[in-house]
Write a structure and sequence with these properties.
Number of strands: 21
Distance between the termini: 61 Å
Mean pLDDT: 91
Radius of gyration: 21 Å
Structural class: alpha+beta
């Protein structure tokens, strides 16, 4: 493939890369995806948000994903023995049916090895060239513009060029590392230890079948996510100071034991994978675009696995990146204006999501809901809370999101101009905005 030219090179074949490539190919552009691993491959991040279903619908992916037989998720159970983080001491269930009319009230729990393969095959079916086992070695520069990449595939070295390069390489951060752009989010320097179990029997679940469970304790939190068949993903997240490398089995077991409802759900299960550890995974970059390139998804920011929003935000930004590039290719003179708008859109979504995470860790997540003076006010605020937990990261008028954005201590990026407007339910978002404006008038 020496000197072969494409409209777009996409680095990474995860959800962000696959969605971006599928959309670009669907628009008639020549696209190649360079993925360093062979698929299917293990990946954490199995729980989806209800806004994901609306997004899949808009991307014409819902049929392909919906027929895979994934576990249906209709809510999330938050367990807090202290009663300091949630509406109800002990257990609070975010019921996705409380989002209001017109929004999907369920989503999926998936095995990412399988889910990511489905998305990558969609990109290939749309016409993108997909090369797995391709390791990007170098970015090709023409002046200050990225104009291609050099990569290794098998025993061969290849160089290809493109009008645009999309970095969807996730934590690998190809462009961020090349230019030294990545910054650690120090207040979220956490460690996750996790594994899968088999033999899950939901008759032992004290809550609702299919729900994710998030169990809070003094040193962090524990997740339990039912997967297809009889599998369940279990993990514990903690500050670095709590983690002890040599005793990960002990730390994992002791933390899980702190959440009796999760222990009860695991009755009769047995480990099916080794323990895995992810450390120092919270980061961002203030520059997510540049001459000839865009970042999508985790390549530009990752906050925390809390609330399961990472895959949704990655896919939303990937779809927006594809739209932005399509518009730039049609009018190259507008590149700077369009990519600046994309960067602000990217930051708006991730900033809102990371603020939600900060609010959880600092026990301020639902204070406005808990302090509502009337039942009607509380129900309305809870509707907005469930929307936010479901993926409502770009709506300007969501009062819970507004409260999060007002806290300067939770800022992720350097100051930027927010770009609002829900990418999943734009018509409903516009109607809600009009209703809020009328009420103020």
């Amino acid at each position: 493939m020496a000197d072969k030219a494409f409209d777009v090179i996409v680095i990474g074949g995860g959800p962000a890369g696959s969605v971006c490539a599928a959309a670009l190919a669907d628009h008639g552009h020549s696209v190649v995806v360079l993925e360093r691993q062979e698929f299917p491959r293990f990946h954490i991040g199995e729980s989806m948000l209800p806004y994901m279903i609306g997004l899949l619908e808009r991307l014409d992916l819902l049929d392909a994903v919906g027929k895979q037989g994934y576990v249906v998720k209709r809510g999330g159970e938050f367990i807090d023995p202290t009663g300091t983080k949630f509406i109800t001491p002990g257990v609070y269930r975010a019921d996705f049916s409380k989002q209001g009319e017109g929004r999907h009230s369920e989503t999926f729990q998936v095995e990412r090895a399988h889910f990511d393969q489905v998305l990558l095959e969609k990109a290939r079916a749309n016409g993108a060239e997909v090369i797995t086992g391709a390791s990007v070695r170098e970015l090709v520069m023409t002046g200050d513009r990225i104009t291609g990449v050099r990569y290794r595939h098998g025993s061969g070295e290849h160089e290809i060029s493109a009008s645009f390069v999309v970095d969807a390489s996730g934590r690998a951060g190809t462009i961020a590392n090349r230019f030294g752009l990545r910054k650690t989010t120090d207040d979220l320097r956490m460690v996750a230890i996790f594994r899968h179990y088999e033999g899950l029997d939901e008759r032992y679940n004290p809550g609702h079948e299919g729900d994710i469970q998030i169990g809070s304790h003094a040193d962090g939190w524990v997740w339990a996510i039912p997967l297809s068949g009889d599998k369940v993903s279990v993990g514990t997240v903690m500050p670095r100071a709590v983690f002890r490398e040599g005793a990960k089995e002990d730390v994992f077991a002791e933390h899980v034991a702190r959440v009796p409802r999760i222990v009860e759900r695991l009755t009769g299960t047995r480990p099916s994978t080794e323990l895995r550890v992810e450390t120092d995974y919270s980061y961002h970059t203030d520059e997510v675009t540049g001459p000839g390139w865009l970042m999508a998804g985790d390549a530009g920011c990752f906050g925390d696995p809390m609330f399961s929003g990472g895959t949704l935000v990655a896919m939303v930004t990937a779809a927006r990146a594809a739209d932005t590039i399509t518009r730039v290719l049609a009018d190259p003179s507008a590149e700077r204006m369009l990519t600046d708008d994309y960067a602000n859109f990217f930051k708006t979504g991730y900033d809102t999501y990371v603020r939600l995470i900060f609010a959880f860790y600092q026990s301020e997540l639902i204070s406005a809901v808990a302090e509502a003076s009337t039942v009607a006010e509380r129900e309305k605020l809870e509707m907005y809370m469930v929307r936010l937990l479901g993926g409502d990261f770009w709506s300007e008028h969501n009062p819970i999101a507004q409260a999060l954005r007002a806290n300067p201590a939770w800022r992720t990026f350097a100051p930027f101009q927010p770009v609002f407007g829900c990418p999943v339910y734009p018509e409903l978002d516009a109607a809600d905005r009009a209703e809020v404006a009328a009420a103020r008038a």
